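Work Package 4 report. The design task specified in the project plan requires that, given a folded chain encoded as structure tokens, an amino acid be chosen for each position. We show below one input record used in the internal validation round.
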């Protein structure tokens, strides 16, 4: 299971490498000891790692005894159980209705987008996962009542830069700069990966009747949330070019990207760090961001092959955040949180 997630993270790494350009390869390596190896990246400013010290919640059924890939009979049994659950979810709470839409296969895109927008406008705007899905669906649906969607998400987006950037994409041209400033001034950046994962794990809890079903629902939840994409990356790239000198736009970008780099989600944090590396104003600053990226990829590389055998790891990701879950898992296995000086992403970890 986690090999699939690891492959998605590797794809993010490849994308980031293409952004940074070949010129970055010639820059000087980061001096050893530039980051404190005792604490996870970003701990001082974002609390990443602090929650990982908390006692884990109830463990899920152990996945270590389940063969992967599962047998056709196990898959058929899981699908039958899911099909019996979906009608119940479709008339439940906004979170359960969102889960039903995410899990339902074969629904035409136009119909799915219309239903997601209706769910948002029908009172689901207070749920981060519903707001995110509704905003994305609205951009894809030509008949979307954009002004109503913007009004329905205004309160929740006031403190979330990610939702503000999605709102920017729906805004009229003369309102986009104000939406950008609102995103810059938002106190945090949350891309809703964990909230969407939690929605799916909660909704499919009745399917965890045996270890095989538990594994399949977890794999499906991660596939749906990890494959959802980062819908605001193009907006950030367009507005945050490589820095030559400190302008007001560069200051805005750096403020927003710092929030992004402190995100509890791997993909958001890595994109924020990578663009800050591109915008670095000195070799020392570039070295610090490069080291933070190395530490993030190191933790992901160590966590990926161990999640399968760790009961409740998906619940840790959903509850603590993806990066905190890395730290939680590595500490349980007595593994180092920071890479040795010679290690580079893509190389074997030696563990």
């Amino acid at each position: 299971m986690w090999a699939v997630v690891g492959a998605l993270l590797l794809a993010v790494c490849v994308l980031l490498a293409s952004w940074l350009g070949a010129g970055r390869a010639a820059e000087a390596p980061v001096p050893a000891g530039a980051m404190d190896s005792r604490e996870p990246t970003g701990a001082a400013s974002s609390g990443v790692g602090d929650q990982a010290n908390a006692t884990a919640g109830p463990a899920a059924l152990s996945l270590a005894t389940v063969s992967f890939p599962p047998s056709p009979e196990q898959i058929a049994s899981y699908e039958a159980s899911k099909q019996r659950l979906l009608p119940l979810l479709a008339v439940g709470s906004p979170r359960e209705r969102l889960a039903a839409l995410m899990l339902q296969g074969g629904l035409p895109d136009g119909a799915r987008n219309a239903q997601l927008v209706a769910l948002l406008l029908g009172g689901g705007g207070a749920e981060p996962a519903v707001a995110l899905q509704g905003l994305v669906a609205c951009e894809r649906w030509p008949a979307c009542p954009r002004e109503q969607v913007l009004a329905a998400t205004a309160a929740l987006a006031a403190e979330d830069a990610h939702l503000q950037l999605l709102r920017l994409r729906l805004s009229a041209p003369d309102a986009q700069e104000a939406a950008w400033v609102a995103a810059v001034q938002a106190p945090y950046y949350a891309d809703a990966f964990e909230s969407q994962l939690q929605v799916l794990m909660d909704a499919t809890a009745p399917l965890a009747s045996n270890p095989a079903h538990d594994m399949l629902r977890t794999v499906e939840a991660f596939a749906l949330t990890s494959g959802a994409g980062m819908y605001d990356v193009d907006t950030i790239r367009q507005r945050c070019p490589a820095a030559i000198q400190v302008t007001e736009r560069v200051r805005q970008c750096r403020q927003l990207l710092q929030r992004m780099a402190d995100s509890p989600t791997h993909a958001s944090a890595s994109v924020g760090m990578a663009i800050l590396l591109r915008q670095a104003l000195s070799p020392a600053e570039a070295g610090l961001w490069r080291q933070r990226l190395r530490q993030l990829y190191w933790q992901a590389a160590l966590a990926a092959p161990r999640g399968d055998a760790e009961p409740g790891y998906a619940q840790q990701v959903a509850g603590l955040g993806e990066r905190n879950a890395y730290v939680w898992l590595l500490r349980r296995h007595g593994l180092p949180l920071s890479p040795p000086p010679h290690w580079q992403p893509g190389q074997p970890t030696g563990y």
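The chain is about 60% helix and 0% strand. Validation will be extended to a larger panel in the next phase.
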